[in-house]
């Protein structure tokens, strides 16, 4: 388990006309700084939404020193994911439902200098993928159907978080456990109790008047649960 909970604001809920400023708002040193910035890449095939791609990510990487956490909700990640790793993304997450050879993909991402992340949709069980997960650095448990921000948290997925936490704590997997979807002040505590390390939050951060303060408040709330 990471020492302090990680907060990763999702720019899906930010103003796309001023992404640089929106990221800068959570990049000031101190408690209001995001640990990672979560960038949702959607292709309108794997999910019914279209966002941005590699050229935008390359520009974002030049504009900030906050580690970029790329979540690829795309078909054929075996072909496209490597570009994000080569561009300098800190963590590149692909969907197990979309990857043809997730083990090879993880090896390629790591060889290109990124952490390798594997994501599961709410309805995808973890058990068939436990061997594959040995090759990954992060597990992104989706707590909404991927595609849109502002949806309600699906608490059933916390069972997968508990399983991953147990396997990580007993040394069977070496993973950062990340959760994505519907994370806010009402839901973060149950996710923290289940063993999440990294909390992705879109509307709870970019819908707030002060995104940096929202980051600090979420981190504090998660940390309180973990020590109590
Ligand atoms: O990947 C996704 C949605 O597919 C997420 O990253 C959302 O951007 C999270 O937004 P909120 O549920 O926190 O508003």
TrEMBL record:
Metal-binding found in the keyword field: yes
Note on how the cofactor is bound: Binds 1 divalent metal cation per subunit.
Annotated binding of a divalent metal cation, by residue: 38, 40, 71, 180
Pathway field: Carbohydrate degradation
Alphabetical UniProt keywords: Carbohydrate metabolism, Isomerase, Metal-binding
A GO molecular function held by the record: D-ribulose-phosphate 3-epimerase activity
Pfam families in UniProt: Ribul_P_3_epim (PF00834)
Reactions the enzyme catalyzes: D-ribulose 5-phosphate = D-xylulose 5-phosphate
Amino-acid positions noted as binding substrate in the UniProt annotation, renumbered to this chain: 10, 71, 147-150, 180-182, 202-203
EC number: 5.1.3.1
HAMAP family, per database record: RPE (MF_02227)
Function according to Swiss-Prot or TrEMBL: Catalyzes the reversible epimerization of D-ribulose 5-phosphate to D-xylulose 5-phosphate.
UniProt family annotation: Belongs to the ribulose-phosphate 3-epimerase family.
Name of this protein: Ribulose-phosphate 3-epimerase
Lineage of the organism: Bacteria, Bacillati, Actinomycetota, Actinomycetes, Pseudonocardiales
The encoding gene: rpe
């Amino acid at each position: 388990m990471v020492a302090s909970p990680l907060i990763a604001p999702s720019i899906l809920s930010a103003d796309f006309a001023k992404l640089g400023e929106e990221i800068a708002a959570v990049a000031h040193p101190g408690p209001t700084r995001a640990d990672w910035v979560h960038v949702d890449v959607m292709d309108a095939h794997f999910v019914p939404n279209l966002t941005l791609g590699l050229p935008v990510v390359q520009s974002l990487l030049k504009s900030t020193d906050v580690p970029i956490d790329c979540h690829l909700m795309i078909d054929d990640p075996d072909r496209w994911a490597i570009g994000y790793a080569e561009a300098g993304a800190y963590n590149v997450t692909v969907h197990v439902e979309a990857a043809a050879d997730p083990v090879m993909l993880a090896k390629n991402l790591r060889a290109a200098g990124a952490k390798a992340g594997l994501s599961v949709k709410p309805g995808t069980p973890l058990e068939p993928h436990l061997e594959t997960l040995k090759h990954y650095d992060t597990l992104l448990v989706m707590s909404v159907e991927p595609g849109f921000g502002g949806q309600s948290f699906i608490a059933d997925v916390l069972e997968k978080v508990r399983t991953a936490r147990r396997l990580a704590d007993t040394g069977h997997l070496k993973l950062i456990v990340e959760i994505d979807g519907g994370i806010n002040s009402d839901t973060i505590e149950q996710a923290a109790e289940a063993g999440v390390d990294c909390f992705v939050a879109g509307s709870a951060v970019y819908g707030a008047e002060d995104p940096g303060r929202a980051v600090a408040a979420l981190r504090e709330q998660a940390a309180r649960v973990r020590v109590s």
